[in-house]
């Protein structure tokens, strides 16, 4: 009787379990397996133990790609969260045209990343792009944006902020969900606008901030499309197929993120064993950051309650 | 416990299903055996060029009535690699990149064609010498050349006349001199038009395309980086940096950032923004289509040593037979037709506007009629032309060196000798990642 009930439960869980097994656990297990092999997709994988992990020490581009990715994590994730909170606070205050502005700010999130990146690079193109032409009219000498090693990553952050709609909408829901009575009580205690934000809004939306931080870090660690496309278009020789990896990281390796290097090593240089080792390292890093964030936030919540 | 073992067993089997099986030795037919059946050809061409392939395939089936050819267009190298790895590779693959030759030969993904070549007594000497280099690796001939590209110099005749320059530069010093004369600056000191844009990440200026100017060597015989040991690279880089410094690196970067995309109608040479540009014979078709009024000339690449003048960079498309081909005999028959039949090659070269790969077709009057195209045919046949050697790690050595060049031209590298030695280390480091 009991196993029958278990079986019924299991059958309801089955689609999810199969999904997790086939699309997560199996690829993860094979990635770990391949990371211990020498593998090029074409010949039989050969067991080499920890060799691929040892090679990371001698990899001349690993450090550069890690630095670029870390830069994005450290800058992009906080900037994205702060901007999304700010934007959602503004939108929550709108009395008239709220629906219109919510739509306007959400819309860019629907643009496919590749198309959005191409459009951005052309809008910011020095010399011919409208943004720098406009700046010139104001008497300003615009930067080289995606063509300058110093500005390329900040430009990518701008691009990310433009498409902030997905996370903004979640923050908006959270901000609108803060009980009005809390604000009224705070106002009675003489709290000003900053106090209301700091001691009412922020603690209430804290779980959403945590969610945005965790998903943001994971997203940024895997940052690929925009960096690849921006490099290719800005370099002026966008190609399809074969030579794509030659424009990765343009200009001067400033947009060369960890996943771009992983792709190059695996699919262009056919070192798939090493690429799998890089993928496993990335997974471990993402997992570690997630665990730390969750632990820290629990400590936070505990303190607040005490 | 048992169920856990079963699950692990299933996982291992799943892993095995998606990884390549050990290679089986292929037996080839006796000479004179009649070949028949279906052969599948995957190529990367689309639209007009795919139609050109179909035309030639029709000729093939007309002369080989017992063979049916099943053509799939628009297949890139990634798809071919995955299909071969999964055991479902096409009989014949046509790739745009010689970068895969090293990997496909060494892994046995494409079979060694020597057995067929010897059986059918195909004379490889009839193939252009440079194309023979990029189609074999470690003594294994696993590919055959299918049309080629030759790189040379395009120069704007109107701008040359205006600057009072009679003809194209033949040495690096002349190139520098002409570039300076052809450059026009705006009132504020920024660049308006540039004689020759020397940045290594501009359009077709990659080290691979520039190497024939100085006869520089990429790899040693045992497949390690030869960059630091070959003084020719130092000559090339010193020359390039001097020209960069003439313009000022920051000025060039700013100018380059404002130029249109290489494969758009806004190409800087087509718009007269640069007077001299390195490009391949396929630019001729773009110019005819997108800038028909532009007065231009073409020439071989200038060289450091006048004695080596006449050549340029050569590369091309390649054909090979998958190790899991269902009908390797018919596959070879098709490859033999597409890469050694002079009539078929001349027709393809004319339709696709690329350089033909056999020495006989180079003299075909239909192709030599256009004087500009003739220049590229001559560059292609010139003994000073060179290509990039196949390597197991594909373009790793070229792209790693490319990174060094961007550091060099920006002035981050102060000591060239130390920089080149370091580049050597990096190239070798990247090349060994795949084992």
Written description of the protein model:
- The complex is a heterodimer of chains A (306) and B (435).
- In chain A, helix 3 runs parallel beside helix 7, helix 3 packs across helix 8 and helix 11 runs antiparallel to helix 14.
- Chain A is mainly α and 306 residues long.
- Chain A is built from 14 helices and two strands; from the N terminus they run αββααααααααααααα.
- Chain A has a two-stranded antiparallel sheet with strand order 1-2.
- The model of chain A has no long low-confidence stretch (mean pLDDT 91).
- Chain B is an alpha/beta fold and 435 residues long.
- Chain B has two domains: 215 residues, Periplasmic binding protein-like II (D-Maltodextrin-Binding Protein, domain 2), CATH 3.40.190.10; 158 residues, D-Maltodextrin-Binding Protein, domain 2.
- In chain B, 43% of the residues lie in helices and 14% in strands.
- Chain B is built from 18 helices and eleven strands.
- In chain B, strands 1, 2, 3, 6, 7, 8, 9, 10 and 11 form a nine-stranded mixed β-sheet that branches.
- In chain B, helix 2 runs antiparallel to helix 14.
- Chain B is globular and about 75 Å long.
- The N terminus of chain B is likely disordered.
Q: How would a textbook summarize the main sheet of chain A?
A: 2 strands, antiparallel
In the CATH hierarchy, what is the architecture of the largest domain in chain B at level 2?
3-Layer(aba) Sandwich
End-to-end CA span of chain A: 46 Å
SSE order of chain B, one letter for each helix or strand: HEHEHEHHHEEEHHEEHHHEHEEHHHHHH
Q: CATH superfamily assignment of the largest domain in chain B?
A: Periplasmic binding protein-like II
Q: How many β strands of chain B by DSSP?
A: 11
Distance between the termini of chain B: 38 Å
How much of the sequence lies in strands of chain A comes to under 5%
What share of residues are in beta strands of chain B? 5-15%
Total helical segments of chain B = 18
Helix % of chain B is: 40-55%
Main sheet of chain B? 9 strands, mixed
Which word captures the global form of chain A? globular
Global morphology of chain B:
globular
CATH topology tier name of the largest domain in chain B = D-Maltodextrin-Binding Protein, domain 2
Could you say which structural class the secondary elements and strand pairing of chain B correspond to? alpha/beta
**Strand/helix succession of chain A:** HEEHHHHHHHHHHHHH
Biggest β-sheet: strands ordered side by side in the sheet of chain A? 1-2
Our count of domains of chain B comes out at 2
User: What structural class do you assign from the helix and strand content of chain A?
Assistant: mainly alpha
Helix content of chain A: over 70%
